Structures are given as structure tokens and as C-alpha cells.
């Protein structure tokens, strides 16, 4: 009746990544992506994609990001200090630690994930082309309401 859950911590077979930032790599500055990326190292700076590209940003178990992430899909197994704007989907795996606000189309959270911040669904989440500016406005309005 119960099947054993497999560890799906961002294994390479789940997603195709054109760029991988290794465990020993540290990047300081803004990243503008045209293709999907997996981060197992450290990035200090914002990560951005164009809204036309369906780019995935994955933070591996050893990955750390200090900055905002704006992408079509975001998968987190490591640490993020910053806001996440995922137009289509955001996933938080069991070891993930996120300190920042999250705006998403759909969400998956594994037991054990730690989230500290606002978690807000995009107002037009059923539409395929959500604007990241809309997501940022929703978070700003929620923050103003809580002040």
C-alpha cells in the first residue's frame, strides 16, 4: 500500500541543465540566463531570465544564492537568501532553506523544507505568460499591508 519515496534531490535525469556551477565555484554579480542552470556552488547577486524563455534555475544541496531569483521555474534543495519569482512553478526539497518572499504559479514543498517569508500565488497563475513585474507588485502590496 505504501511505497518507499525515492530521493529526488534534483537528480540530473529530472531536468536538463545547459550550465552547471560546481561546488567549488563562487560567482559575485548579476546573472542573466538564456538557458537552464544548476547551482551547486555559491552565487552572490541576482539571477534573472527573460520572461519569454522557459528557463529553470535549480539550487542543488550544496548550492547557495544570496540575491533574488526570477525565472520560469525554480527548484531549491540548498539555501537561498532573497526573493523568488517563479512564473510557472517553484519546488522546495526537504533540505532547502529559503529566507525571502516567494511568488509562484504552482508550488511543491517537501516535508522538512524551511521557508521564512511571504508565500504568494501569482494572481494570474493559470496564464502561461505571467509577468515577473506583476509578481513583484503582489509581494510589495502584501508587504505594505503587513507594515
Shape: globular
Helix content: 10-25%
Integer count of domains: 1
Q: Structural class of the secondary elements?
A: mainly beta
Largest sheet: 8 strands, parallel
* Rg from Cα: 15 Å
Order of helices and strands: EEEEEEEEEEEEEEEEH
What oligomeric state do the depicted chains represent?
single chain
Termini separation comes to 48 Å
Mean pLDDT: 84
Count of helical regions: 1
Contiguous runs where pLDDT drops below 50 for at least 5 residues:
1-7, 126-130
What descriptors fit this protein?
disordered N terminus; 6-stranded parallel β-sheet; mainly beta; 1 helix; 16 strands; 147 residues; globular; 10% helix; 8-stranded parallel β-sheet
Summarize the structure.
The chain is 10% helix and 41% strand. It is built from one helix and 16 strands. The protein is globular, with a radius of gyration of 15 Å.
Please characterize this protein's 3D structure.
The strands form three sheets. Strands 1, 4, 7, 9, 11, 13, 14 and 16 form an eight-stranded parallel β-sheet that branches. The protein has one helix and 16 strands. The protein has one helix at residues 132-146; strands at 19-21, 26-28, 31-33, 37-39, 42-44, 47-49, 56-59, 64-66, 69-76, 79-81, 84-92, 97-99, 102-104, 106-109, 114-116, 119-121. It is mainly beta.
Topology:
Layout: E1 19-21, E2 26-28, E3 31-33, E4 37-39, E5 42-44, E6 47-49, E7 56-59, E8 64-66, E9 69-76, E10 79-81, E11 84-92, E12 97-99, E13 102-104, E14 106-109, E15 114-116, E16 119-121, H1 132-146
Parallel strand pairs: 1-4, 2-5, 3-6, 4-7, 5-8, 7-9, 8-10, 9-11, 10-12, 11-13, 11-14, 12-15, 13-16
Amino acid at each position: 500500500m505504501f511505497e518507499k519515496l525515492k530521493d529526488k534531490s534534483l537528480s540530473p535525469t529530472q531536468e536538463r541543465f545547459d550550465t552547471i556551477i560546481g561546488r567549488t565555484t563562487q560567482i559575485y554579480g548579476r546573472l542573466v540566463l538564456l538557458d537552464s542552470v544548476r547551482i551547486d556552488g555559491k552565487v552572490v547577486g541576482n539571477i534573472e531570465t527573460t520572461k519569454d524563455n522557459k528557463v529553470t534555475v535549480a539550487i542543488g544541496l550544496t548550492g547557495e544564492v544570496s540575491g533574488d531569483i526570477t525565472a520560469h521555474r525554480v527548484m531549491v534543495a540548498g539555501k537561498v537568501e532573497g526573493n523568488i519569482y517563479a512564473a510557472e512553478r517553484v519546488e522546495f526539497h526537504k533540505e532547502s532553506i529559503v529566507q525571502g518572499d516567494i511568488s509562484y504559479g504552482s508550488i511543491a514543498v517537501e516535508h522538512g523544507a524551511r521557508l521564512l517569508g511571504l508565500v504568494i500565488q501569482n494572481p494570474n497563475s493559470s496564464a502561461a505568460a505571467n509577468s515577473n513585474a506583476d509578481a513583484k507588485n503582489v509581494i510589495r502590496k502584501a508587504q505594505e499591508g503587513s507594515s
